[in-house]
């Protein structure tokens, strides 16, 4: 099976897998504008403010990345009793399949990083935070939450940003708890002493973090490998994935080592790229995807998020297209001929339709459920012109061929046909499916194509949608939220 097929299968299989993320949660704010003059009060630029945005940061961004892939995520972290905590709650509440279980700390501030940008370039970052170690009582609350949530988790992620939530004792307790439940532990480390993560399944340090932990100025790949092996042997760590910025990443495990160069890409903002890497490596653990392929996926994902503004996440559709999925024949005549051959073999034909712009977990749920009702599922895909009329001038995000490629790559989609009308009525009449599937709160008789399908002996099936998932929602939470 090709790498592309394995990754597509992985992105389908990871849906609804359960993950527990514990660590330093934070809010990222972006104050945007343009600098056109210098202040008369001091030799500093004056930022003419145009908009403000906010996004998840730290462990919250790892959780968001996993949820946007389709995982069921429980997030545990410390917040203060302040307005920033309320803002973070609000952002997280709009992310489907993510449950936030905060530890409220009256003596701490909720971490917020505020970045000031002019024409997309950062000018200044202001951090408001408490970095002292949390109290014993607060640590006990985290461990108590973990003991309950670990029973459902298939992987534990520790996201350490050195803000005081994770420290030696609590790390050891959480790792032992996971080991007792046969749950792998993946750690994004910040401590200068990797003994804090003794017994972890995988560490994902960047080069600077590994250099500090090993007490060496590392650069050459063989030096990096040797330092990683020394740390792994000393602290019982099974795997180490070292991110090397523009040089890609290096995976060390047992006697094996693999280096993947970074994908060529336009780097716009590296904020949160490490969060995407650990999320995608976690997803590989969830489905049993080979670590080498997980590394390939993480490397690919990192190249996509650094081209976005601010801390960002990805949809399965973006990843599928980036894997160089094959081009798709979306002509009606081609599919009609194929349907004729399938019907000669007594196969049932199903049909559903939509824009499928940035294929997300809600789409995957609908398509997999629809395919269960037929032998071959045909997807009617709105053309770019049709999407623009229906959704607005800024849509689609992905062009029609990319949307078709991501759909056709799914194992339960047999064919994709483009249509340019506002409704699929004409296409349904041309294909005459046995099963017409619609997702959402519909009455069967109101579905476009109902009369034609039922008049030819077919049936219309309504499938419940996955709550909270929509492309519009992703554009608000998967990238910067503007207000």
Task: Please describe what this structure looks like.
With 483 residues, the chain is an alpha/beta fold. α2 packs across α8. The protein starts with a helix and ends with a strand. The chain has two domains: 3-314, Ribokinase (UDP-N-acetylmuramoyl-L-alanine:D-glutamate ligase), CATH 3.40.1190; 332-473, HUPs (Rossmann fold), CATH 3.40.50.620. The chain has helices spanning 3-13, 59-69, 83-93, 136-149, 168-180, 207-214, 221-235, 273-287, 291-305, 316-322, 332-344, 361-371, 384-391, 400-408, 425-431, 450-455, 471-477; strands at 18-23, 25-38, 45-58, 72-80, 98-105, 111-118, 121-128, 155-159, 185-188, 202-203, 239-243, 249-253, 256-260, 349-354, 376-382, 415-419, 435-439, 459-463, 481-482. The protein contains 17 helices and 19 strands. A hairpin with a 5-residue loop joins β11 and β12.
**How many strands?**
19
* Count of all domains: 2
Rounded Rg: 24 Å
Classify the fold: give the CATH topology of the largest domain. UDP-N-acetylmuramoyl-L-alanine:D-glutamate ligase
- Text of the CATH class of the largest domain: Alpha Beta
Main sheet characteristics = 9 strands, mixed
Class computed from helices, strands and strand pairing? alpha/beta
The side-by-side strand order for the widest beta sheet comes to 5-4-1-8-9-10-11-12-13
Average pLDDT, rounded to a whole number, is 92
- Overall geometry comes to globular
How many H/I helices? 17
Question: Which regions are unreliable across 5 or more consecutive residues at pLDDT < 50?
Answer: 478-483
Helix content: 25-40%
CATH architecture of the largest domain: 3-Layer(aba) Sandwich
Q: Looking at this structure, what is the CATH superfamily of the largest domain?
A: Ribokinase
Strand content: 25-35%
Give the termini separation: 45 Å
């Amino acid at each position: 099976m090709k790498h592309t097929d394995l990754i597509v299968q992985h992105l389908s299989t990871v849906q609804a897998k359960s993950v527990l993320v514990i660590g330093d949660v934070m809010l990222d704010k972006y104050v945007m504008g343009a600098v056109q003059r210098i202040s008369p009060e001091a030799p500093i630029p004056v930022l003419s403010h145009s908009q403000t945005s906010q996004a998840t940061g730290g462990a919250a961004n790892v959780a968001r990345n996993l949820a946007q892939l389709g995982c069921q995520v429980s997030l545990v972290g410390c917040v203060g009793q302040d307005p920033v905590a309320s803002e973070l709650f609000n952002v997280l509440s709009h992310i489907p399949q993510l449950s936030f279980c905060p530890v409220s700390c009256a003596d701490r501030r909720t971490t917020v990083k505020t970045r000031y940008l002019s024409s997309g370039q950062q000018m200044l970052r202001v951090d408001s935070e408490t970095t002292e170690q949390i109290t014993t009582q607060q640590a006990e609350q985290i461990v108590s939450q973990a003991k309950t949530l670990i029973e459902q988790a298939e992987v534990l992620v520790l996201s350490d940003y050195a803000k005081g939530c994770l420290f030696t004792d609590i790390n050891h307790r959480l790792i032992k708890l996971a080991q007792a439940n046969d749950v792998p532990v993946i750690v994004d480390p910040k401590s200068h002493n990797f003994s804090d993560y003794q017994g972890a399944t995988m560490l994902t340090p960047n080069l600077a973090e590994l250099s500090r932990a090993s007490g060496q100025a590392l650069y050459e790949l063989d030096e990096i490998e040797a330092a990683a092996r020394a740390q792994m042997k000393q602290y019982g760590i099974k795997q180490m994935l070292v991110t090397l910025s523009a040089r890609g990443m290096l995976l060390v495990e047992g006697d094996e080592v693999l280096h993947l160069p970074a994908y060529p890409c336009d780097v716009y903002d590296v904020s949160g790229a490490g969060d995407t890497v650990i999320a995608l490596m976690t997803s590989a653990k969830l489905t049993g995807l080979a670590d080498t392929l997980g590394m390939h996926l993480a490397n690919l994902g990192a190249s996509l998020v650094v081209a976005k503004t601010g801390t960002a996440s990805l949809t399965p559709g973006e990843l599928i297209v980036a894997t160089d999925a094959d081009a798709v024949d979306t002509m009606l005549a081609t599919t009609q001929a194929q349907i004729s051959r399938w019907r000669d073999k007594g196969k049932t034909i199903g049909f559903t339709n939509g824009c499928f712009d940035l294929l997300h977990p809600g789409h995957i749920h609908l398509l997999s459920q629809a395919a269960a009702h037929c032998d071959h599922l045909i997807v009617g895909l709105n053309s770019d012109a049709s999407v623009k009329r229906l959704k607005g001038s800024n849509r689609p995000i992905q062009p029609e061929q990319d949307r078709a490629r991501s759909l056709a790559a799914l194992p339960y989609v047999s064919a994709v046909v483009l249509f340019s009308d506002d409704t699929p009525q004409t296409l349904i009449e041309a294909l005459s499916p046995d099963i017409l599937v619609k997702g959402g709160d519909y009455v069967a008789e109101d579905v476009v194509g109902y009369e034609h399908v039922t008049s030819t002996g077919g049936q219309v099936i309504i499938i419940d949608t996955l709550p909270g998932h929509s492309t519009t929602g992703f554009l608000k939470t998967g990238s910067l939220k503007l207000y």
